[in-house]
Sequence to fold (169 residues):
Amino acid sequence: MKTTLMMAITINGMVAGSNDSTPWSNEEFANFEDCIAQHGNIIIGRRTFNLMASDDNFDKLAMCNKVIVVSSTHLPSTSGCTQTPSPKDALDILKQEGFDAAMIGGGTQLNSSFLQEGLVDEIIIDIEPYLFGNGIPLLSQIEGEFKLKLLSQKMLNQNSISLRYRIVK
Fold:
């Protein structure tokens, strides 16, 4: 199964401000939604789930057939969400349901877990024109190095760019 990790970041690698703010452009949000629609699924972590649930963002995922939350902590049931304890289990669920590609949509711990377990094939990074002095980084502590090969780049607007990389294995 091909897995794609997609995140919007600041120039200094933050996925959100310290207050969970994500002041991204409309074009970035549209790019994110397009990627979800192409995959038909999204895998998120507990913290991202909680943020989405508090903002009623699950209603905005109409283009998504499957939402999987990776968490060992029991979460309240939300329509359309499946919970599983590990990244590998999330991919197994998608395979069993006939998906051949998966989209990982954050957050920091989940991104790091998928990378550390060697379960990411591509990374799409949308760079937005911000610097956050304090914030939430793209990754938490990971071991090793990962070599990337640039596959494509596209301007989202006058100030934002989307970069697609393949992890060289």
Notes: The chain has a mean pLDDT of 92. The first strand starts at residue 2 and ends at 9. Helices lie at 26-39, 46-54, 87-96, 108-116.
